[in-house]
Request: fold
Amino acid sequence: MDGVTLIDHPLIKHKLTIMRKKQTPSPHFRSLLREISLLMGYEVTRHLPLENVDIETPITAMSSPKLAGRKMCIFSILRAGEGLAQGLLELIPAARVGHIGLYRDPKNLQAVEYYFKAPPHLDERFCLVVDPMLATGDSAITALNRIKKAGASDIIFLCLLATPEGIKALRTAHPDVKIFTAAIDEKLNEKSYIVPGLGDAGDRIFGTV
Ligand code: URA
Reply:
C-alpha cells in the first residue's frame, strides 16, 4: 500500500500476539507496548539525517556521525497515544512532546477536541503523531488537521494496529503523511472496534476495563 510501512519484525509480531490476548493484564500490556514502541521507533527514525562531528575516543581523534540537530516532536493522541509516546521519548529524549485530546460526540460520532498543547516552532520539527489504534481514521484525521493548523508539515503517523478503512481514510485526507504500523487487521465491527484487534487500547493500558 502506497505510503504505508508495515513493520512486521518477528519480535514485534510475538509481543503483539501477547497484547491481543484478552487475559494479558494491564502491567504486562503496558510494558509490551513500550517495548514495541522502541522497536518501531528504530524503524520510523531511519530517515533522520546525520552529520559528522569531531570527537576524541580514549584512543584517538575521529569524525563520527550524530543526529543533525533536527528538532523533533512526538505528538500523543490522548489517551492511548501515551502508551507509545513514553517509550519513544526514552529513545529520543531530546524530542518535545505535544498532546491532543479528542472525544467522540455521542450524537454525531464526530471527534471533538478537548485539549491541545504543542511545543513551539512546530513548522521546524519532524512530528511523529502516535495512537496505537487506527480504526475509522476519524481521530487521526482530526488530530492531523489540528497539528497542521498549528504549523507542522513534516509528519509521520505511527500506530500499532490499522484497518484498511482507516488507512484509506487517512491517506485520502492527508496523502503527505506516511503511516507506520505493526499490523493491518481485517476490519471494523459495528461499534468501530478493530477486528480481531485487542479491544480498547486505552482501557487495556490504564486498567480501566
Ligand atoms: N480504539 C481502540 O482502542 N480499539 C479499537 O478497536 C478501535 C479504536
The helical segments are 10-20, 26-44, 81-91, 138-149, 164-173, 201-206. Residues 80, 133, 135, 193-194, 197, 200-202 surround uracil (CB under 6 Å). The domain at 4-206 is CATH 3.40.50.2020 (Rossmann fold).
